[in-house]
Amino acid sequence: MKFSQEDFEKAREQLKLLKTDPGNQVKLNIYALFKQATEGPCKAPKPGMLDFVKKAKWDAWQSLGNLPQDSARQKYIELVSSLVAAESSQVEATPPGSKAAYETLEVSTKDNITKIVLNRPKVKNAISTKMYDEIVEALEEAAKDDSVITVFTGNGDYYCSGNDLNNFTNLPANGLEEMAKNSADMLKDFVDHFIDFPKPLIAVVNGPAVGIAVTLLGLFDVVYATDRATFHTPFSKLGQSPEGCSSYTFPKIMGVSKATEMLLFNKKLTAAEACSQGLVTEVFPDQVFQKEVWARLKAYGSLPKNSLALSKQLMRSMEKEKLHEVNSQECECLKGRWLSDECMNAIMSFFQKSKL
Amino acid sequence: MKFSQEDFEKAREQLKLLKTDPGNQVKLNIYALFKQATEGPCKAPKPGMLDFVKKAKWDAWQSLGNLPQDSARQKYIELVSSLVAAESSQVEATPPGSKAAYETLEVSTKDNITKIVLNRPKVKNAISTKMYDEIVEALEEAAKDDSVITVFTGNGDYYCSGNDLNNFTNLPANGLEEMAKNSADMLKDFVDHFIDFPKPLIAVVNGPAVGIAVTLLGLFDVVYATDRATFHTPFSKLGQSPEGCSSYTFPKIMGVSKATEMLLFNKKLTAAEACSQGLVTEVFPDQVFQKEVWARLKAYGSLPKNSLALSKQLMRSMEKEKLHEVNSQECECLKGRWLSDECMNAIMSFFQKSKL
Amino acid sequence: MKFSQEDFEKAREQLKLLKTDPGNQVKLNIYALFKQATEGPCKAPKPGMLDFVKKAKWDAWQSLGNLPQDSARQKYIELVSSLVAAESSQVEATPPGSKAAYETLEVSTKDNITKIVLNRPKVKNAISTKMYDEIVEALEEAAKDDSVITVFTGNGDYYCSGNDLNNFTNLPANGLEEMAKNSADMLKDFVDHFIDFPKPLIAVVNGPAVGIAVTLLGLFDVVYATDRATFHTPFSKLGQSPEGCSSYTFPKIMGVSKATEMLLFNKKLTAAEACSQGLVTEVFPDQVFQKEVWARLKAYGSLPKNSLALSKQLMRSMEKEKLHEVNSQECECLKGRWLSDECMNAIMSFFQKSKL
What is the CATH number of domain A114-355? Predict the structure, then answer.
């Protein structure tokens, strides 16, 4: 006999400290070994078919046959040790909350929630080329980590002021044509990552949102907003056209006519209007916004991870192909827009005004 | 001459008592024979093209040419007799309101409305395996009967508390795998019957609705609810995933974000919330609910039957294929869920709590 | 030297009077020629990559190389003259606001807005066969003209009372079958023109709307209504079925259940109800309706034309194929309805009542 009764008692205690549920099959196994170790082979009468739980336990115990009690005890201790070892190695591999270092984002994980914070408050969290790249990277990381849900929010007064127009001034060697092509490729890849994200994706809109920060909301699963938030997509004023799949998601969410007022005629919505049109799930007074929303998110983070992910994927799968097609068409249309007089005039006029 | 003038007068009286409209062609024929029998061949001037009704009547009379008045009278009497005979044989074949006997439902037809009542009030109308089968049978019967619309409602305080979890405890010989497969097959066939139902289908939600009783509402054409009703789909708490095509119909009805709160995050809606989100057509105060709803339904039942059925089928045809595909995917996903640890833990926990 | 300094100064003045923006490429060219003419070859330091506007201007000037100042001045004068000439010839070709003469419509263009007024106020703007044809013609004209948006409205108290039932009384030689076929063909072509219209299409609903005037609203991009407006589609009462793609657009806009109440069960909506169901974008008090709506439309008309047209086409392209398919199915269904007893009875009854 390699293990003492003391080791057996210690294993029982360690079992209670495990943080990760080892799954039903393992738990039934532990139960059976414990019974076999302490009472010997199963002699209990077979439970009725209707008693689902008792029957499963009885089957597990019964399956050990005439395994000696000492062997059962030894296997019990070994099984618990392996579970404890697996858990501590996991903890070492990924220290809680740590993420790769980002320049334009703050990313952390806590309470089964991965939180991605847009972090350029001095420019109202405008999305620079660097930030586009980092968001893609953060989404890829979040898709693979242990979190149950993923949350986007902004640092400071703004949620996000949209595309940083300075992105347009970085003319590559081959001029406008190449810039338009590169930008369209980058945008397509960026939006594709939102379409394909496999877990529930939640926006915590802590202030005004503009342009692509608004259109992308149609690809989120839940959108909570402070009553200070506004929603504005002034595309036509800039000679541009809608992106982020909004030409498809917005008519679906709010009907063609309200979508047209926003996407073509530059109507800016209050948080209450965005909520009544279905773009925002719920609006909270600013004073209690963070507290109430995070209490709710914490509860969501405690729900069964796979059930949530599969349910989200089920809802998304119905239109994933369509969304990728829409994204392609929108990027193609924008590429043409960026080379158009209407757009160039509007952007020149923007920079001329901003220099006054 | 086989028929007397008296027979002719009697036929005129019988005609007034007919309950079934014999159709325009027959009515024009009756009109023409009557005119021919009483006035002889048509000598009236041809009406103008614009006078639709007169022209149709004139054509019918004219088409009898020089048929002798006696022959016209005889044909008139024969035609009316055949209509009267057809009507009385119909009445004998299907005594009014009678239906096959059901164990878990009450089914009857009145005022052109087939009413299917969920009738297990002691268990809040939870849907047992037997009830699934009987609902399928009742839908098949209602599709074929003479009714104009079909109505679902519940007996007692609840509309329906959803799937009876006891269905999970009837383990077949080959265990869980087989149970999961059988349940998924049954569910798919059940939901398919709602997708394919050819007439307007109306839910009269007389109290709280849970789970599949809520998700199926997305496949109804109209949903009237008492203000006592609530709508709750706690799938993820049970480690499960949405069914009844709700992963497609709910985002379509209320937008992705409000659908996600219900289907993933277990939000329970009041009747007013369900109405403002489009899941419920109209809410009524409980005191007047039955009276007002049935007055309205009676009016619907008096509308042209084929016009309603074809209009409903037109609306449904746009997405029927999609709905069947969604149903398959949802059932496949659920089959996997039922064998998962998340689901088994949740159901075991439910039965353990319910034994305390 | 063909041109004097005086000609050069005159060209500078003419340039300021141009009404049409000649496009960025031309403007950069004008800028470069002016600099070359007045300062000689470009000697300015190359601007940084980040200064988008300066860089474009510098490139244009630089590209003229060592072109002599006199030649630059001459080319400048020629370029401006050609722009002035192009503009005045355009003005002659299409006198402002004039349109082909219509019998049932008033059509005009002003402030970049083409306005199509339904103009049979004595019959509440019911759509006669002639009006169907003229609307198709007006849409074809508006699609090609210089306007930015197109607006429909009605003359008098009604927006439009729907299909003129007198259309049914013009029986062609081959009778009902042919009438049904002709009507279905005409309807299909009519609705196709709304599906394919390439610019933002806006309805200004100045009073009650009935039947096809309501269903077509689902194909408009924005719908503004006076609070006097009502929306009524009593198809089933007439034994008919929905058209104008409403069997697809209405469920998409307001959910299946509210669409069913309108399209199957003849529910008449107030303007406020139509707005909360998403069919109407915004409702205005009748006293300020025209003033407020037209101020808004004028602002829309001043936005970049191509940006708006392409954005609208992007939104429409996602479902254009589906809409044409729906239109075909609806017309096919109606063709059957028009030959049915239910429909013939209802129309006969309508005319009989209206003769009392």
Answer: 3.90.226.10
